[in-house]
Automatic annotation (TrEMBL):
Record has S-adenosyl-L-methionine as a keyword: no
Keyword match Transport: no
Protein name from the UniProt record: Uncharacterized membrane protein
Pfam families per record: PelG
Lineage of the species this protein comes from: Bacteria, Pseudomonadati, Pseudomonadota, Alphaproteobacteria, Rhodobacterales
Amino acid sequence: MAGIGFRLERLAVEGGLAGGIIAVFTGALLASGYYLLTIFGVGVSGAVSRAVGDPAVAEDFRLMTIYAFAIASIASAAALLPATRQFADALYERKPGVAPALLFASFVVTGAAAALLAAIVFGAVLRQPPEVTVTGALYAALIAMIWAVSTYCSAVFAIRAVLMSYFVGTLAGVLGTIVVSLMEGGAPAMALAYAAGLSISLGALVSVFLGAFPFPIKSVRTAVATLLGSVSQFRFLSVGAFMGTLAIWASTLMIWLSEDGETNASGFRAAELYDTPHFFGLLSLVPGFALLLVFFETSVFRSLRRHHDLIESHAALEELETSAEELHSTTLRGITILTAIQVVIAIVFVFAAPIAAEANFIQLRQVSVMQITALGSVMHLLIILSSMVLIYLDASRLFCFVQAVFLFGTITASGLALPLGERFFGIGYLAGASAGALAGLLSAQHVLGQLNAHIFMGAARRVHSALGRLRS
């Protein structure tokens, strides 16, 4: 699934300084998915809406977007990672014909899950009127489907087409919300206008993917059943992905639900003292994501593929041990380099926080939250790096364990930090990510240190499982 990463790596290596900059910038856009562009789009839409219309409408639209993104990510996580595994297995087994049906099955499962959860949150929890509930459900479903197809498109080389799909949809969404603002429409109308832009991106991305996999779409119903079966088969991946995604939002949700959270006139719950600086602090992860996509994932994939080729060619045990040691050292070196870079980026954000306050991007009382979040991003990147290694090495139980540590560490630390006041709001995220990073590094080190034994035992378990399914 590292197709785009290999293309960007080639651009960075062969394109000189300019190629490297373009590769990292492109990687940042691809790795952050539609999230980064939506932030820009909603920011522009909100600024125009506040200038020509009601600022309260712009705020409601912003909160609807935040809720939709949170709901879509949490609702789709449990199905999307097993679906990705199923797709990757199909490519490895040279069965690309299943790709189109699997994509549409992912749309059905993730879109339905996001729409259902959004209906519950907007309708039952927030007590929003029907038009807001229906719009929120559609909004969340579209976001979930865009994330699904974006994940699948990571296997293709059409970088320019993918980026154009993002940009055109974002531009259409922004223009649509501006028109709604000029017509003095409400937040649901702005959300629908932006959702129309999402639909354009979704259609374009589907076209890109089907262009790379031009196979007839077989029974989507069968593909849905197969996908749901893979959720059960890869249950540790599924549960781990859900907990890891929930962990990202855990500190935010706890503060929203605490006495420090606020409910606006439209009934949306938020915590402005935490949300904005936490968001700015999380932006420090974007360069790390880009470097992960362009350099780290491709390096791990290439080394692991070389090791598997040796196994399939019945190489001598000594040769396998040497290859395992090289993979171990290469992976840890990559983790060390990316972590060091992320530390530098986090320090830049720490010193930039007071400057952001002087420029009125955040309040002075929010500086500490942005700084703590930026430091937490270092630990969060370590979780992502170690989790990627565990997934590639099929250590799904350990992957699930790491995400559980991240989630419950964040919940516990956030609960303990709430009485300390607003200056320590970001401690929950930092502490939870630190605990998860430690668990992730120890787990990855353990598996890498016993790589050959882990691979052979994993193969034996898969054969035993396959035989059991055949008997049943």
